[in-house]
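fyi for ur records
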Amino acid sequence: MRLRDAILSKLDGGTFDVLIVGGGINGAVSAAVLAGRGASVALIDRGDFGAFTSQESSNLVWGGFKYLEGYEFLLVRKLCVSRNRLIRAYPDNIKPIPFLAALDESSPYPPWLAALGSAAYWAIGSFKTHYPRLLSTKRIAAEEPVIDLSGVRGGVEYYDAYLKDNDSRFVFGFVRSALDVGAAAANYVELIGAEPGGIGWRATLRDVDEDRTFHCTARMIINAAGPFIDGLNDHLGIATEHRIVYSKGIHLIVDRLTPHERVLAFFDDTQRLFYVIPMGRRSVIGTTDTRVDDPRTAVTDEDRDFLLGQINARLALDRPLAAGDVIAERSGVRPLVVKRQGSDQTDVDWTKLSRKHEIEVDQERKVISIFGGKLTDCLNVGEEVADAVEALGVPLEKDTGTWYGEPAAATRAGFYRQARLMKLDDLRHKPDVEPLSDRLWRRYGRRAFEMLDEIQADPAMGQDIMTNADYLRVELHVAAGTEMITKLEDFLRRRSKITQVIPEAEVRASPGLREVVAILFGDEADRRLAEYLDGRG
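which gave:
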């Protein structure tokens, strides 16, 4: 029986302490901490895990340097502490990285003032990152010749962190942690109704993939629906002090613009920061900030032209970037928290809103609502949710911190020792591609040991399966059994980042695509491939 089918059987008619609605970062981290501390947990999402807001981030783990402008020192401190915790807990997945900000004559701050802000940011973060630097134009030219120095007065370098892999895979890591300790977590399951009564709530669920309805009961509901939180609360009859407004942001992914492993930062023509972020052999350019009323967004021609114009004006490229150079695009909304204050607040200045989160608890109806937040703050969200669940009467085991983080250093050393003995990194020789041992350990942790055994037993398991995709056959077999892949896009876009770094037309034409589908879906391979080619999965 496939993993998802087994989970659906567990959900159908099941009774749980907590039903979490929404499988983005907030829902995933809540499932991980609660299941890790002994609660019986059900987690559902009407799409794939991390498939909406959580897959459209900048892949940055940062303390919010820009929030210093609004004097939100406590928020910056909290985010920096969380960033530091994540760097310690995920040393192979979350890496410190320098940010080089070039400041021209139109920038809102002179270099010396930005340097003071960088020093304050470093101090607020307990000096846990590399120290910042004030950079002259001569130094910028020497270190990043790709930057066009026309009008540049100088710059600063400071440090934050970023995800080596994609954001939605990081989200799935928390889902996998919850599954490992007994949670029932299923994608493509929708909450279509919930009635209070008995021990708490009787929920009516629908398997979106198979169009099948079933029920479960839970003592409480956690609303982790992200940008859809207000609609779900209305459905549940919950009144809250806060609500969400939406800010749209886009990213463009192009061939690598600089060989250096650093983030380039610039102020655009609206005096908002945007970045060039490394992603392996690619660069991610973004983001923008546009007020929208609908969380479902897409990159428009205007969005694309604006961002390309901004980066072309600030880099000394051999030729300007054009729309044809864009390999992939991202478009999503930031769910920003505001107080209702008895009005529609149509005059909210969303550009000044921070990415703080708020957690509200309805004691009577036993509903916890998670508003806002961001990837950097995820551990804080999880811990606050656990406190709220205990306050509503579900006792939890002591928090030992085992619900997050990578395996112990000794386990890591054991993997690398075994990988060296079997000469794993000699299996292929590709330019600008990290060693196989690094990639397998980072993505799979303890499950990577199983991969070594499979490769030793059958060398074909160590072969790349799709042209330019940098993905081994053995990874497909492990993903098929453990990663709840329901549609082909779940694998291509979220469990991996294949369609973020390879043009989709090239993916569709790859001779290895049919084998990928066959491994992932078995008897359903033709159906799943047809869905993907038709744009339905």
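The longest strand covers residues 242-255. thats all i got for now
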